[in-house]
Amino acid sequence: MGRETRYTVVGAGHGGKAMAAHLALMGFQVTLYNRTAENVAAIARRGGIELESYQGGPRGFGLLKLVTSDMGEALAEADVVMVVVPSTAHADIARAAAPHLRDGQIVVLHPGRTGGALQFVKVLNDCGCQADVTIAEAETLIYASRSDGPAQARVFAIKEAVPLAALPATRTARVLEALSPAYPQYIDGISVLHTGLNNMGAIFHPALTLLNAGRIESTRGEFQFYIDGVTPSVARVLEALDRERVTVAAALGIRARSALEWLKMAYDSTGSTLYEAIQNQPGYRGIKAPPTLNHRYIFEEIPMSLVPIAALGQRYGVSVQCVDAIIRLACIVHQTDFWRRGRTLDKLGIEQLSVTELTRYAMEGLRE
Fold it and tell me: What is the rounded distance in angstroms from the CA atom of residue 368 to the CA atom of residue 362?
């Protein structure tokens, strides 16, 4: 696959619009799918998306082949399907796509959060999808972007290296090869257990939001989220969460990156504690807090990131008291049972698997 690779982007939020426009500007045939037709009416009328960028990034008018809210139409010609929606919608997308997928197609979740590819495959199987498709997930969204209008998007930055893994991992090389003409930034993420457990948003976003709940509600988020919101006490909670995540990964035989290592890798920011490293990261300056607690940092990250991490910990004998405490706080604040909504192991199709069986499933796709 080269320039003739036909892409379908699922989702017309800031990330989906940025990706669709960028792919079109790179010369690829791009279809944009969005469940709600009126949300993409302006894009359909104009025939594409206007992309702006900082620091010499991609810019211009990305002309799209098709804009549709019909999943069958969206998938009919696609070689690669880029799913750029909140992870709370992954199961719905899988159900909608199941009757229309065909052999040889590649579906990539941007990002998977924790267990995205596992859940997607489970839903396809439950729907009786017979097509031989490859499901993969990225560890994080490659773009830092925002929506500037109904048919406009803006890219602040494109990450230089983003781990990606297919389920099973034996297919990762094929996915990387298919994406490389457009995105040489994707690198081998080892397995979907690695990409799922190196989920940094799970550590930084929900706890930081909940521990600043009073301030967010009284100021409507008018403070610097990471600089003012991360005090020494808050950072200690983030460190405890991070320790539990790394320990859950270790129980599965995975050496996950710690938050400190990640800050060093992503931003070259260092410190003897997480508090110091965050305060030493100039990129965090000026980033405002969420204006409300009704935010994806809670309603997405709790059920799709922290619940599966806690569920894995409970299944494989790791104490996840701090993760559990944050989930409980979120349930109280939102008056919602996030455990019921979240990615528990039965929803990932792995509740019966031993560590050895789970590893084999992730690496080779083999079930006992």
Answer: 13
Enumerate the β-bridge partners of residue 108: 82, 136
Q: Percent of the chain, pLDDT > 90?
A: 90
Q: How far apart are CA 228 and CA 211, in angstroms?
A: 12
Cis check: omega of the bond before 168, within 30 degrees of 0: yes
pLDDT of 99 > 90? The answer is yes
pLDDT of residue 367: 64
Buried b (16+ CB within 10 A) or exposed e, 143-161: bbbbbeebbbbbbeebeee
Find all residues with CB under 8 Å of 62, minimum gap 6, and list them.
20, 21, 22, 23, 24, 25, 30, 48, 49, 50, 51
Contact 181, 2 (CB under 8 A): yes
pLDDT of the residue at 266: 81
pLDDT tens-digit series, residues 123-148: 999 999 999 999 999 999 999 888 98
* Whole-number Cα distances in Å, 38 to 9, 34, 69, 146, 148: 17, 9, 9, 19, 17
Nearest partner of 120 among 84, 82, 91, 85, judged by Cα: 91
What the chain holds in terms of domains, given with CATH numbers, is: 6-196 (3.40.50.720), 199-354 (1.10.1040.10)
Residue range 167-214, pLDDT digits in tens: 999 999 999 999 999 999 999 999 999 999 999 999 999 999 999 999
Angle at 35 between CA 144 and CA 305, to 5 degrees: 50
Angle between helices 321-334 and 307-315 (to 10 degrees): 140
